[in-house]
Amino acid sequence: MDPYAALRYREFNIFLLVRFAMVFAWSMQFIVIEWQVYSLTKDPLSLGIIGLMEVIPAVGMALFAGHIVDQKEKRNLLVTCIAGFSVISLGLFLLSWPGLEDTWESRTILYSIYALVFLGGIVRSFLGPTIFSLIALIVPKKIYPNAATWSSSTWQLASVLGPALAGFSISWIGVHWSMCVIFGFSLMALLFLLQIPRKPIMNPKIGEPVMQSLKDGLRFVFNNKAIFGALTLDMVAVLFGGAVALLPVYAQDILHVGAEGFGILRAAPAVGASITMLGSTRFPLHKNAGKKLLMAVFAFGICIIVFGLSELFWLSVAALFLSGAVDGVSMIIRQTILQLKTPDNMRGRVASVNSMFVGSSNELGAFESGLTAKLMGTVTAVVFGGCMTLLTAGATAIASPTFRKLDLQKDIDEHEKD
Question: Using only C-alpha atoms, what is the Rg of the chain?
């Protein structure tokens, strides 16, 4: 297959610019907010509350958002999401105005930030399913795998560059003008998106009762072995293999590498995933996808165990780099499965369930890592997580021969005939 097949469609290129700008702005904004909140409170717990304020509405609203996405026109809905994010970014820009602390109490500013983060979580619950659904309306079905790869690669690149620029930006121009940069990127995304025309609504059940719609979406996900298997494997890998949450402990107390070493450790998985995603544009992963996904999750578990036991900095970096590389394989295959196996009229609901699995497992994974580290010790907790990931991959391979034999080439061939 042509590795640049999806890039030959003008609308898809515009879509990638929109996605890059949004992910870049969102990831940059999260880092800047953390810095501002900690500067106001000097309390580490306040940082945890930021994540909590975003994940509660993002996960709690996910299923309802999926229903709305399947009922509405996707381009305009995405315009609404980005416009909402822009308003939130503008609000954060105003809350970081120099001298505001002289007229407002710090607690008032802090609670206002939390409120805007909460609203951002609501926007996030709609954003993911809308983006997932829009891709399928921009490119032909036969190049869904290639489009999914480029979309995931764009997301990964933006999620790496956003936090990196945030750190430099705070140092160079301060929190206030960093927020202005974020607002500018959101407006840029909005302007790009307006160049994509409106798309048809593919759902024949417009006006379907909400509860019936949600039941149909959940039933479809849980009855589709390929989708449910891919989501479950990803959730378990993130839940139990979430060593990233304990990186500050490793950097300071085990590897003794300080802030610079922490930055390298934090970047290593993202770099590995980015390289895998770019490589997959030339070497597609759809043949024997089930075996490759199981092998990737198994390898991820081994990398986490090696990282957990390592006391050598560069061995730890290599383990994290490889964990990101194999996680990139898992991410690409999962997105390809979702794109190929999901009917057009259910894309919003399926993407919402996916966001619940991934979003909740990220937050719960951080909590699980912290809890097990407190109960077992840091090294034991990380090794335990890696072992649980291995057991899950092995159990899935044994218990589900259908998933093990999954090959997406047949689905791609069918789409090419359409």
Answer: 21
Domain count, the chain: 2
d(CA 394, CA 193): 43
198 in a structural domain = no
Same domain, 51 and 179: yes
Same domain for 123 and 167, yes or no, is: yes
- The answer to whether residues 102 and 176 belong to one domain is yes
Q: Is the pLDDT of residue 116 over 60?
A: yes
Task: Specify the CATH number for the domain of residue 177.
Answer: 1.20.1250.20
Q: Are 386 and 304 in contact (CB under 8 A)?
A: yes
pLDDT digits (tens, 9 = 90+) for 305-363: 999 999 899 999 999 999 989 888 888 888 888 878 888 788 888 888 887 776 656 65
**Which of 193, 220, 241 marks a domain boundary?**
193
Please name the residue ranges forming H helices in 377-399: 378-399
d(CA 260, CA 254): 15
Q: Which residue has the higher pLDDT, 275 or 47?
A: 275
Boundary of a domain, candidates 163, 193, 223: 193
Residues 184 and 224 in one domain: no
For residue 199, being part of any structural domain is answered with no
Between the two ends of the chain, the Cα-to-Cα distance in Å is 17
Q: Which amino acid appears at position 404 of this protein? A: R
Q: Provide the pLDDT confidence category of residue 415 given band limits of 50, 70 and 90.
A: low
List, for residues 173-198, the tens digit of each pLDDT value.
Answer: 888 999 999 999 999 999 999 999 99
Q: Can you give the pLDDT at residue 353?
A: 81
The encoded tokens of residue 251 equal 């950097």
Measured distance CA(275)–CA(321) in Å, rounded: 10
**Torsion angle of the four alpha carbons 341, 344, 345, 346, in this order, in degrees rounded to the nearest 10:** 40
With b meaning 16 or more CB within 10 Å and e meaning fewer, what string describes 248-257? ebbbeebbeb
Q: Among candidates 216, 387, 243, which has minimal Cα distance to 321?
A: 243
Would 201 be classed as within a structural domain? no
Q: Are residue 87 and residue 154 in the same domain, yes or no?
A: yes
Of the pLDDT bands very low, low, confident and very high (cuts 50, 70, 90), residue 411 is: low
The range of the structural domain enclosing residue 214 comes to: 208-418
* 253 found inside a domain: yes
